[in-house]
Amino acid sequence: MNETHDSSPKAEPFSAAKAVAAGIDFAELQVGRHGLFWNEYRPEDAACRLWHWRDGQAHCLTPAGFSVRSRVYEYGGGAFCLTDDGVVFVNEADQQLYRQSLKDETPETLTSGECRYGDLQFAHGQVLAVEEHRDRHRLVTIDLADGARHLLVEGADFYAAPTLSPDAQRLAWIEWSRPDQPWTATRLMVADRQGDGRFTQARCVAGDAVQESLQQPRFDGSGRLYCLTDRGGYWQPWVESSYAWRPLPSAAADHGPAPWQLGGCTWLPLNENAYLASWTEGGFGRLGLCGENPEDFTGDYSRFRHLALDDQFIYCIAASPVSSSAVIAIDRKTRQVKVLAGGMAPLPAEQISVPQTLRYPSSSGEAHGFFYPAMTGDTKPPLVVFIHGGPTSACYPMLDPRIQYWAQRGFAVADLNYRGSSGYGRAYRQALHLSWGDVDVEDACAVVTHLTQRGLIDGDKAFIRGGSAGGYTTLCALAFKKVFRAGASLYGVSDPVALGRATHKFEGDYLDWLIGDPVTDAERYDARTPLLHASNISVPVIFFQGELDAVVVPQQTRDMVEALQKNGILVEAHYYADERHGFRKAGNQAHALEQEWLFYRRVMDQMD
């Protein structure tokens, strides 16, 4: 036998640890009199820290021992705001407000107690916030000088996006009541300031006559009120005009994501005839100035979040198929792009698997997503189907180090926006109504058939994985279909009825919308509960669960594992004592990713 020896240096493998380390992310970009600020998450210590761009460099403001993250509605958002001389932020550990100057001083406590805060805004010496006390929610202001709290609004079940007009004479906000969700039916409310400084009784200006989802209300410099609404089929900008609403010229596309978190900003009105916005077309993000003189600023990027602007620059958090999330500044005149933070590629461009648009038939409908080819040259590689959580959420065509981890190991990936996902309009989003565990499962199975027929994968080596709601779809697919060779549930739902009893207020009625009333529709629940049909699962399953999870409690996973073990199915389970719903610590994320890959490898070795 002839042997050849390659003396060239070998590339170090793209490990799970490297994939996780590349998962730096950003949120809540804001620009003010002192410059640009953002919140940055780093996997190595799972902390979120504020950064300030000044003198051509990024400076970290958050000292050791602090992490800037809200937990209002469990998913948080809007965790900081700019003040006249610094910032106010929510500290993750105690959920209280702290004020901090820009002089590297230790943050000072502004509030204390059991309340949690989010969606912070600052105006005229006060912090405007959503306040959460157990299951009660309100809008309040906190005086910056002495921390005095003032109640603004209460009575609705949920509040979001409190916004003051430039002259501080009008207050607008979004509210909704159970059983509605923020992406099904909300109301836009307005109150006027009186001579004594207090606000008048609130009045509903949109969302009372028709069922619509409203988000991101905005005032322009002249005090005109705008809002995104899906009454036309997509989340598009409308403006209040003579006590009526009219749409602004816009693409037939969603201009905002499903508002799982507070504090989002995907559009900004400039005047009655122009606005800055990001939107999605075919799943890919666009960025531009819209109106009388439209300008396209999309460039090489495919997703845009948290927009801000000043006279010279458009700022946003952007990502592309070959670069991770970054804070960027786009010169409004020259269109030159400057990366202020992030944007690194963990692999050379030629080694990155680039997303291809998926649009394929599924039962009586059509589904969407993105296909990532394997990077090992196999003509018919095994497939991993990614199911996002939510389920009213979405995946995006941007560099995801986890997907690259699989592609580097010879797997193709189908990242699905199954029916019910956001980003494709209201009708597509509403397609999951009373159909969770049905149409999403059909879409997950149909993509295997679609890719097999096109000769892009080995359909006999298809795997499925998902976290949270994606874990539920995964388990349903394994229990009710015979398409996948194995699956992975990351803090996934196995018993919807048990989830409904234990979950938090924000999602307290979500299951009624997704499946039905647990009492009157008990038969439907029984038919779509993986735990009750564990005997139908005939392939190996691996589980990952945080012990501190308050959304999908650990007992759900333990019950499912036990049921499968009793049936003699190969099961592996990993529990993490220091994780909640969604893993944040780098070591745990890397461990889970690697163990999942090893698990699938063992399954394929047994097949061979």
Automatic annotation (TrEMBL):
The keyword Metal-binding does not apply. It comes from the Bacteria. GO terms for biological process: proteolysis. Residues 400-605 form the Peptidase S9 prolyl oligopeptidase catalytic domain. Pfam families: Peptidase_S9. InterPro entries: 6-blade_b-propeller_TolB-like, AB_hydrolase_fold, Peptidase_S9_cat, Xaa-Pro_dipeptidyl-ppase/CocE. GO terms for molecular function: aminopeptidase activity; serine-type peptidase activity. Keywords: Aminopeptidase, Hydrolase, Protease. Signal peptide: none annotated. This is Dipeptidyl aminopeptidase/acylaminoacyl peptidase. It comes from Pseudomonas migulae.
